[in-house]
Structure formats: C-alpha cells, structure tokens
C-alpha cells in the first residue's frame, strides 16, 4: 500500500519537474525571440525611452550579464526558476508570486466548482441510462453528450450568457463578485465534463447491473435502491474517478478560455493577458502554476481512486 | 508468398483477408452521417465560393449587418463583409490546418511508436521521455506558449498542434506494437526470413489502422477546437483573417442586432467538430 502510494507520488513529482522545465525553457526561448536588443529594452523600461543611449544600454548589459553565452543565460534562468524567483510583472511591476497568490484561489474555486457540478449532473444521468441501456434516457444522454462535446467550452459559455444573462436576466454575464458570478463560468465548464462523466458512468453502471453479484443481490430480496447503494455505486465510481484524470486536460484548458470569456480574475485570465502584453515573467509564472495545478489535481484523482478501489493498492 | 502457398495456412489467410475487408467496409450509422456532414462542409467551403463573389475581406460599410440577400446569401458582418465568403474561408482554414497537423502528427507518431514498441530498450526509454515532456502540460497551454513566441502566425499554431497531437499516436501505437511484436505470427514471419517492412504491412498495420484512424478523427477535432479557442481569446490568428473563434469574438457585440450572423460561425464550428466525432465512431472522450 505504502509502496504503491510512494511510487505514484514520485511519478507525479517527476511530472511536476517536467512542467517546470518545459515552461522555463519555452519562456527562455520567448525572451530570446523577442525583437530588438535586450539591453536597450531593459534600459528603456528603467529610465524611460527618452533617456536611453548607448552608454545606458552598455551599463545594463554589464550589470545583468547580458553578453554571456545563451547556454549560461539558460542555466541562470532555470536556477532562478528553481529557487522560485519568478521576477516582477513587466506590466504592473508587482512581484509575480504575489499576483499569482491572488489569482490561484479564484481559479481553484472555478475548477473545483466545475468538477463538482459535472459529477452532480453527470453521475445521476449516467446511472439512469446504465440501469436501462438503450432506453430513452440513454439515447437522449448519448445525443446530448455528442452535441456538448462538439462545442468548445467558450461556445457553451456564450450560449449560457445569452440564455441566462441576456434573455432571462437571472445571472450576471461576467465579472467577479458575490456567489452568483461563479454559476455561469462553472456551468460552462461542467457541461462538457458532465457529458463524458455521464457516458463513463453509464458504461460502468450497465456492466455492474449485468453482473452476477448484482442479480444475486436482487434475488436475495434487496430492493433496487438498496442493491444500487450497496453493490452499485462504489463499483461504478472506480471508472468514473479514474476517467476524471483524462478530463483534467479539458478542465485546465477550459479554465484558460472560460476565465477570459467571463473576465474571471484567475490564472487563466492572467495568462492570456500576459501573452497579449508579452509580459514574459507573468507568462512563465501563470503557465507554471497552471501546469502544477494540473499535476496536483491529477495526484488527487489518483489518491481518491486508490482509496475507493482496494484492488489497485495491491498491484 | 511461401506462407500463403502452404496448405495448412491457407484457410487462416483467407479468413484474415475476409475479416480485414469486412471491417473496412462496415461503417457504422454514425460514421456514415459523419462522412456526409464532412462532405457537405467541403462542398460549402470549396465549391460554393467558386460560383459566388467571395472575397472574405472586402468591406462594404453601407450595408453592415445586412440580412441575407441574393448578393450575400448569408448576410454581412459588422464591416459589411460577405458572411458566406468569410464562413467558407474560415472552414477552409480550419479543415486545412486540421488535415495538415493530423498528417504531420500521425506519420512521426506512428514511426516512433512502432520503433519504440518493437525495438524496446534505450530507444523506447528515450522516446517515452520525450512524450512525457509533451504530456506534462495540457496541450492547449503548450500551443498557447508557442503561439506567444510568434503571435498571429499560422505556422507556429500548426507546429504547436502537431507537436501536441503526435504523442497520442505514439502512445497507442507503442503499446499495441509491444504486444504484437511478441505474437506468434510475427515470430514465425521473422523465422521465415521476411523483412521488417513486410511484417509491418502484413501483421502490424492491419491491427493498428483502425486505432490510428480513430485517433486521426479525434485529432482533427482537437486541432479545430484549439485554433478556434486561441482565436477567441485573441492569441491565435489576427484580423482580418476569417477564423471561426475570432469571428465569434468580433460578432458577439452585435448579437442583439444580428443574432443570425453570430450563429453562423458557431454552427460551422459545431458541425465540423461533430462530423469528426461521428467519423471517429466512438463515444466522446
């Protein structure tokens, strides 16, 4: 049991290291690919465009060691990253870490709410479809799952805004404030996730409901509800939880786009703004935290599936 | 050649031929719908503009947000550009990019997967590590960071998407090849002295092909969604390019005045992704 958990955590730790390396390397390439002379650009940032001359640029170059070879600069870049020195935003001047600390909470709220809503919608629909395979609930669920998966989260978000904010006026269209602002962005992400969760639940449920132990429980005289609660739910939960880790890609990608659409002050929104403004330290910080969020959620899913499925603890 | 002539093997070869042609011909109901939908989109994107005046960037500021007419069968956008021309151009762009990135992802993915699964050893470890690096981040984040290096560039988008997509082929092909390479039929072919190419064509490809085509259909859908998502958050292609995500961002402010104009890129995107999902012949993933 402990060995299984420690190998699992080690794998995820390696993945987190890879995230840091990939993000660090790509942002390093980004700094090198920016047009113009780096020393002049930094000098302009410090003293203003009117004050820059060749001496100022040379001073900056000597001070920051900009004339060193790209390879040494690359190692400096990575060691700064490892010591969590993420620098300051080029736009706001705030330190990247403090900006991220603000935004992380909002992104977590959104991601967790979306996952929760997806399970609350997807699992009951899947169980209903799985108990009566090819019944009308099943067919309807399949058609809506295919339709929802053919729409990217931002289009689902647009449709939700039109319906609930513009036509009905029930919920605010965008922004961040009371609890009511969370509903539409979380729902936009949750519908796509729920579509897949419902299908996975349906297949799991159909398999469990057709199994001998399920039939035996019914012949012993347990009611349909009791059988479902005692022999169904936990067995169905195994594939559903395991599949959540596949869906996390959709969730994290969706968070980036949905936060921009709903002006939700999270990390995805900040990442898109940083890319538009070419704010390299912020791009690095936000992409890093997004990647680490992905790894952390994956680890959580792994641990939960170990907890509910004792068979996996042995292997 | 030798194997098919020997009497003991003949029936199994015949059965194999039958099975492969059988699976090739048997398209599901959903897949047939997918093909028809895709064909309709292709005709709309490439054939219709041949018969109508179709410049996706020509503006006519006297008739903005016009209702459908004979001259502009799908109406005009907020700058008076023909929506028919723009939607057709956007579909051409999305499908072209999807096809290009799927092909460039499938070939190296297949090659790397077969090599890693067959050879094993350091070759497998090296390729798997590269794949793990790509998979560490969600695909869209990787494409987004590459897009940041050269904003608004078609080719960085293409490279980013292909880079993300090849890993799927690699993983699926690698694990299938590992099992197949140990199988008795491959072993006997090797003992009979057949070359690698023959074994690949005769024993590996028939097993891999259905999985690769399913991945290709999902990959095309992924690529279309990625381009439109990046366009939507204004990181992808830049105006005046007709791109579906970008068009939605541009047209959303006019939703109250001209809802049908906004509906067009939404429907085009929906039908394109739907056709590939149906074509994949599997439930959504």
From TrEMBL, chain A:
<dbReference type="InterPro" id="IPR045621">
    <property type="entry name" value="BPD_transp_1_N"/>
</dbReference>
<dbReference type="InterPro" id="IPR000515">
    <property type="entry name" value="MetI-like"/>
</dbReference>
<keyword id="KW-0813">Transport</keyword>
<keyword id="KW-0812">Transmembrane</keyword>
<feature type="transmembrane region" description="Helical">
    <location>
        <begin position="151"/>
        <end position="170"/>
    </location>
</feature>
<feature type="transmembrane region" description="Helical">
    <location>
        <begin position="287"/>
        <end position="308"/>
    </location>
</feature>
<dbReference type="GO" id="GO:0005886">
    <property type="term" value="C:plasma membrane"/>
</dbReference>
<feature type="transmembrane region" description="Helical">
    <location>
        <begin position="182"/>
        <end position="201"/>
    </location>
</feature>
<feature type="domain" description="ABC transmembrane type-1">
    <location>
        <begin position="104"/>
        <end position="305"/>
    </location>
</feature>
<feature type="transmembrane region" description="Helical">
    <location>
        <begin position="110"/>
        <end position="131"/>
    </location>
</feature>
<dbReference type="InterPro" id="IPR035906">
    <property type="entry name" value="MetI-like_sf"/>
</dbReference>
<feature type="transmembrane region" description="Helical">
    <location>
        <begin position="240"/>
        <end position="267"/>
    </location>
</feature>
<comment type="similarity">
    <text>Belongs to the binding-protein-dependent transport system permease family. OppBC subfamily.</text>
</comment>
<feature type="transmembrane region" description="Helical">
    <location>
        <begin position="12"/>
        <end position="31"/>
    </location>
</feature>
<keyword id="KW-1133">Transmembrane helix</keyword>
<keyword id="KW-0472">Membrane</keyword>
<dbReference type="Pfam" id="PF00528">
    <property type="entry name" value="BPD_transp_1"/>
</dbReference>
<keyword id="KW-1003">Cell membrane</keyword>
<dbReference type="Pfam" id="PF19300">
    <property type="entry name" value="BPD_transp_1_N"/>
</dbReference>
<protein>
    <submittedName>
        <fullName>ABC transporter permease</fullName>
    </submittedName>
</protein>
<dbReference type="GO" id="GO:0071916">
    <property type="term" value="F:dipeptide transmembrane transporter activity"/>
</dbReference>
Automatic annotation (TrEMBL), chain B:
<dbReference type="GO" id="GO:0005886">
    <property type="term" value="C:plasma membrane"/>
</dbReference>
<feature type="domain" description="ABC transmembrane type-1">
    <location>
        <begin position="91"/>
        <end position="280"/>
    </location>
</feature>
<keyword id="KW-1133">Transmembrane helix</keyword>
<feature type="transmembrane region" description="Helical">
    <location>
        <begin position="126"/>
        <end position="149"/>
    </location>
</feature>
<keyword id="KW-0812">Transmembrane</keyword>
<dbReference type="Pfam" id="PF00528">
    <property type="entry name" value="BPD_transp_1"/>
</dbReference>
<feature type="transmembrane region" description="Helical">
    <location>
        <begin position="212"/>
        <end position="237"/>
    </location>
</feature>
<dbReference type="InterPro" id="IPR050366">
    <property type="entry name" value="BP-dependent_transpt_permease"/>
</dbReference>
<keyword id="KW-0472">Membrane</keyword>
<feature type="transmembrane region" description="Helical">
    <location>
        <begin position="257"/>
        <end position="280"/>
    </location>
</feature>
<dbReference type="GO" id="GO:0071916">
    <property type="term" value="F:dipeptide transmembrane transporter activity"/>
</dbReference>
<protein>
    <submittedName>
        <fullName>ABC transporter permease</fullName>
    </submittedName>
</protein>
<dbReference type="InterPro" id="IPR000515">
    <property type="entry name" value="MetI-like"/>
</dbReference>
<dbReference type="InterPro" id="IPR035906">
    <property type="entry name" value="MetI-like_sf"/>
</dbReference>
<feature type="transmembrane region" description="Helical">
    <location>
        <begin position="33"/>
        <end position="52"/>
    </location>
</feature>
<feature type="transmembrane region" description="Helical">
    <location>
        <begin position="89"/>
        <end position="114"/>
    </location>
</feature>
<keyword id="KW-1003">Cell membrane</keyword>
<keyword id="KW-0813">Transport</keyword>
<feature type="transmembrane region" description="Helical">
    <location>
        <begin position="155"/>
        <end position="173"/>
    </location>
</feature>
<comment type="similarity">
    <text>Belongs to the binding-protein-dependent transport system permease family.</text>
</comment>
């Amino acid at each position: 049991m402990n060995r299984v958990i420690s190998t699992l955590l080690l794998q995820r730790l390696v993945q987190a290291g890879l995230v840091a390396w990939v993000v660090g390397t790509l942002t390093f390439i980004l700094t090198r690919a920016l047009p113009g002379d780096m020393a002049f650009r930094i000098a302009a940032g410090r003293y203003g465009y009117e004050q820059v001359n060749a001496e100022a640029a040379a001073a900056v170059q000597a001070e920051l060691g900009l004339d060193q070879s790209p390879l040494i600069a690359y190692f400096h870049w990575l060691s700064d990253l490892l010591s969590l020195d993420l620098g300051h935003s080029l736009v706001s001047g705030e330190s990247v870490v403090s900006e991220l600390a603000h935004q992380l909470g909002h992104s977590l709220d959104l991601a967790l709410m979306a996952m929760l809503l997806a399970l609350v919608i997807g699992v009951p629909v899947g169980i209903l479809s799985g108990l009566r395979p090819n019944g009308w609930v099943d067919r309807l669920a399949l058609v809506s799952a295919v339709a929802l998966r053919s729409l990217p989260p931002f289009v689902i978000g647009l449709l939700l805004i039109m319906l609930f904010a513009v036509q009905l006026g029930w919920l605010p269209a965008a922004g961040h404030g009371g609890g009511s602002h969370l509903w539409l962005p979380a729902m936009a992400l949750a519908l796509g996730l729920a579509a897949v969760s419902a299908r996975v639940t349906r297949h799991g449920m159909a398999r469990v409901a057709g199994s001998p132990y399920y039939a035996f429980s019914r012949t012993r005289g347990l009611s349909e509800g009791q059988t479902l609660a005692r022999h169904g739910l936990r067995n169905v939960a195994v594939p559903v939880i395991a599949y959540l880790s596949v869906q996390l890609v959709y969730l994290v990608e969706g968070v980036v786009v949905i936060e921009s659409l709903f002006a939700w002050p999270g990390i995805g929104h900040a990442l898109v703004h940083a890319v538009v403004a070419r704010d390299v330290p912020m791009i690095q910080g936000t992409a890093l935290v997004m990647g680490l969020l992905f790894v952390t959620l994956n680890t959580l899913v792994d641990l939960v599936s170990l907890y509910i499925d004792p068979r996996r603890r042995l292997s | 050649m030798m194997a098919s002539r020997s009497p003991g093997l003949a029936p199994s070869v015949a059965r194999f031929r039958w099975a492969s042609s059988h699976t090739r011909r048997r398209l599901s109901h959903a897949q047939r719908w997918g093909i028809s939908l895709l064909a309709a989109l292709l005709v709309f994107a490439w054939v219709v503009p041949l018969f109508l005046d179709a410049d996706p960037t020509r503006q006519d500021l006297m008739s903005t947000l016009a209702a459908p007419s004979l001259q502009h069968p799908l109406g005009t956008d907020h700058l008076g550009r023909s929506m028919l021309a723009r939607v057709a151009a956007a579909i051409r762009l999305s499908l072209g990019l999807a096809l290009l990135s799927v092909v460039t992802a499938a070939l190296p993915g297949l090659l790397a997967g077969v090599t890693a699964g067959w050879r094993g050893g350091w070759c497998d470890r090296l390729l798997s590590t590269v794949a793990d690096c790509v998979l560490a981040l969600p695909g869209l984040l990787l494409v987004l960071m590459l897009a940041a290096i050269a904003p608004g560039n078609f080719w960085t988008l293409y490279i980013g998407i292909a880079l993300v997509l090849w890993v799927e082929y690699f993983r699926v092909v690698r694990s299938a090849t590992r099992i197949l390479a140990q199988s008795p039929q491959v072993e006997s072919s090797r003992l009979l002295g057949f070359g690698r190419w023959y074994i690949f064509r005769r024993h590996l490809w028939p097993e891999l092909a259905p999985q690769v085509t399913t991945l290709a259909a999902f990959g095309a859908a992924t690529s279309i969604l990625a381009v439109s998502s990046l366009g939507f958050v204004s990181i992808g292609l830049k105006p005046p390019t007709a791109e579906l995500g970008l068009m939605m961002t541009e047209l959303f402010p006019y939703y109250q005045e001209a809802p049908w104009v906004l509906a067009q890129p939404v429907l085009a995107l929906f039908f394109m992704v739907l056709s590939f999902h149906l074509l994949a012949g599997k439930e959504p993933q």
